[in-house]
Amino acid sequence: MTAAMTGDIVVQLRGGTYRMSSTWAFSNSERDSGTNGYRVTYTAYSGEIPRISGAKKITGWTLYDAAKNIWSAPVGTSLRTRELYVNGVRAHIARGPSNPTGWGTPTSTGLLAPDSTLASWPDIVGTEVVSENTWVHKSCPITAASGTSVTLAQPCYANAGVPFVFNSGDRIPQEKFNVSWLQNAYELLNNPGTFYLKSSAGTLFYVPRANEDLASADVEAPVLETLVRGTGTAAAPLTNITFSRLVFEHATWLEPSTSGGYAEGQAGWHITGANTQVPMANLTRTAGNLVFDHSTNLNFTGDTFTHLGSVGLELTLGSKNNTILGSTFTDIGSNALQIGSVTVADRFPADGDKVTGNTVKNSVITYAGQVYRGAVGIFVGYTTGTTITHNAIGQLPYTAISVNLGWEGLSYSGDATVTYNEIFQDMGVLTDGGAMYSQMAMASPSVMKYNYLHDEKITWGGAVYLDATTGNWTVQNNVLDTGTGASRFIQCCFAVEARNNVVQFNYSNASGTARGVPHPSNTVNNNYDNLTSFPAEAQTIMAGAGLEPAFAYLLSERTYNDTTNGISYSGNGWTYSPDRGYGDVGDDLRYSNAAGAAVTIPFTGSGISWLTQRSTFTGPVQVYVDGVDQGTITPPTSGAPYPTRHVGYSINGLAAGNHTLKIVNNGAALITVDAFTVSGPRTTVNDGAAGVIYSGSGWTYASGRGYGDFGDDLHYNYSAGATVQYAFTGSGIGWLAQRSSFTGPVQVYVDGVDQGVITPKSSGSPYPVQQVEYNITGLAAGSHNLKIVNITSKLFTVDAFTIENNRKTSNDTDLAVIYSGAGWTYASARGYGDFGDDVHYSRAAGATVTVPFTGSGIAWLAQASTFTGAVQVHVDGVDQGAITPAKSGSPYPTQQIGYSITGLTAGEHTLKIVNNGAALITVDAFTVKQ
What we know:
Elements: E1 9-13, E2 16-19, E3 24-27, E4 40-44, E5 50-53, E6 55-57, E7 62-65, E8 70-74, E9 84-86, E10 89-93, E11 110-112, E12 128-133, E13 136-146, E14 149-152, H1 156-159, E15 164-165, E16 171-172, E17 181-183, E18 194-198, E19 203-207, E20 219-222, E21 228-231, E22 238-239, E23 241-244, E24 247-251, E25 262-266, E26 269-271, E27 278-279, E28 288-293, E29 295-296, E30 299-301, E31 304-308, E32 311-315, E33 323-325, E34 328-332, E35 337-339, E36 359-361, E37 364-366, E38 378-380, E39 387-389, E40 392-394, E41 401-403, E42 417-419, E43 422-424, E44 436-438, E45 441-449, E46 452-454, E47 464-466, E48 471-476, E49 479-481, E50 488-490, E51 502-504, E52 507-508, E53 523-525, H2 536-544, E54 557-561, E55 568-570, E56 575-577, E57 589-592, E58 598-612, E59 621-625, E60 628-633, E61 646-665, E62 671-673, E63 675-679, E64 683-686, E65 692-695, E66 700-703, E67 713-717, E68 723-737, E69 746-750, E70 753-758, E71 771-790, E72 796-798, E73 800-804, E74 808-811, E75 818-820, E76 825-828, E77 838-842, E78 848-855, ...
Parallel strand pairs: 1-4, 2-5, 3-21, 4-23, 5-24, 10-18, 15-27, 21-28, 22-29, 23-30, 24-31, 28-32, 30-33, 31-34, 32-35, 33-36, 34-37, 35-38, 36-39, 37-40, 38-41, 39-42, 40-43, 41-44, 42-45, 43-46, 44-47, 45-48, 46-49, 47-50, 48-51, 49-52, 51-53
Antiparallel strand pairs: 6-20, 7-8, 8-19, 9-10, 9-20, 11-14, 12-13, 12-17, 13-14, 13-25, 15-16, 18-19, 25-26, 54-63, 55-58, 56-57, 57-62, 58-61, 58-63, 59-60, 59-61, 64-73, 65-68, 66-67, 67-72, 68-71, 68-73, 69-70, 69-71, 74-85, 75-78, 76-77, 77-84, 78-83, 79-82, 79-85, 80-81, 80-83
């Protein structure tokens, strides 16, 4: 760049994967900064997705052990990695069963195995022993095994056991090195989705999951440890750069494979070097796969950080006034985002090295700590003026937000603002943490306000956790929907109590119990605990927390594992199966073969999907939504190997609010519960709203009914030809009505195209209200029109309409869309109203279109005609059956939904559509629910 910029410089990256053989480096000394107040922006080309990857693509797979379904590929002896991704899904290092029995008392050099089996393994050196307890995850390599004696690497093993000490002389002994599991050995390749790299032979081994075909699968082995690095100096920082709508993926972290292993102290910071005792103020950082130091005014806007092996993004010394906005962090090995340091040297650094004024806003952080499970969502070290606001943070094994970890003493840290965040499903694995955690006194007042914390799994700790030495925090007006356990935890132990904190006006459905008696300098009063329902003031806080409306699309669906608090199981026969290795959400499943076995989940949103494992053993279930029978559902079946994470039932279009789903096993067939995905709230338009147009005769308006209608009112009609229309902007719409035994069929039109006859479900008295009678989802983002016509003189009711937010729409020409097979033709500038005014089509049997996508649902848009025929649909390699798109006569309507699926776990998926015969198949576009 020039030193005298006269305008912004914008670098547009075309879609596709940019495989980095070395770190993408930015330096002020190399003139990478924006100057004269102008910015240098690296952004995605319109409608395309550039992926910055540090991985090597692995091919050449052959079956190595048919009995165990172990495959191998040559990778060369120089490849080193601790990560692997297959079709966008993280594979795990080969591991044994959890919490194995028979291990003896730890020795000074290692462990005593149950027997001499380990000593017989040819590659026992380098196998790792993992130990998890309370708040830490540790792993140490094995250096030798003889008989039952197992020697662990030093200094890893010593550091995993040395005590933590305070200046007062108080000590916290570490828990003994228990064996949580063994990993990284060929002999442990027992479960699908696991791998082992034998570097000495240059061979990678892998056990594929159900429906993974390694001949065509995208297998990525990350090799870079630093994917992106930005550096400046205190005097000349790297400045004025924007990264926008880029995907950063595929990096590893190799330090845990060394003799130092990974002896965690807390929150992704670990113990290194030779020690006899460890001051908790002297831990070592886990380095970022993207790391910036002495960088100012950097913007990360709409970026995605995913499939990373260590810390996702790190802003370290001298990082000032940087902004992370509208970005997504998911599937991160350690901390998703790390701002600042907590080493002793960084407590009072020179001004140029201080970390100040950084903001994280309207971003989504999920599934951090996927390898090192003591990691957190956002780690904030010694900083000033850090703002964390309006984020959605959840689905984490440990703490969500950790601020000022230092244990004791003072630093320059202060003026932190943690407000309006939605934090959910944290503390999923470890204990002694919380949704919002702090330690050590802040040098200037800091606040935690207006946050909504829910579905937290607390076995020990607190949703708001002011640990020992915490000070100068104001914690007010938070809603703690923790369900069980302590809601606030104000530490008062080890002679270093939390002091000078104000905790007031918080709402909780838990006890609010503190550990011991808080120091009298703390003000703790006027909190509302043990609530059975939240008052209007609390509900206002809940509604205002999390992503602001313009960013709600970043997390339109949330996944709740089968173990989530609030999910209840009743009836007989329920069994919990953990650590299955089959690709389940959370690697676990609940199942029953008993008639009447039921699962119930309350949820807040506008829709829900039940995820199951398919097999030939499942049978029909009865489904109830808000107590109303939705009928008998028989989930699709599949032969072995039985695929997981599949949608067994889905409902969308409910009015935004609180609902309940209940599923009951109808017989003695198998019922499985893997997880539930919940759709975020839709905009709900009442029947009397402006823009809802009624025509035809006989319309009657009834208000103040008291039956639970949306808005407590309803329009109804008994006249044939009576019509209601509503013009909306979005990607879908649901029609809500009252069910009864008097309703009859209606004709539905979307954008003037006949969608067919819909007959609402009937129900006896008392007649349920706010029922979804028609829902369409997956339209191209934009303006649409719904028209419903009564075709008989039976009852026709209109309660409300729910609108799906605009989806991302990818044209048929998107670089990610892959066409294979014969006969594909591209037609552009057609003038028929196609999305992008173009279409791909074929009349050849076997013609296939494949599109990878990131989200929780996808719809295929096509042109409807009398010439189209059946296609076979596959999602993530699993056959969804034959689909015949709706037909239509001339003029043939465009942008019509040929297939749609919702309710998938948020993440990377693949849709494949195959023409079954010689009929016409058209591809106009795809819409993705993010």
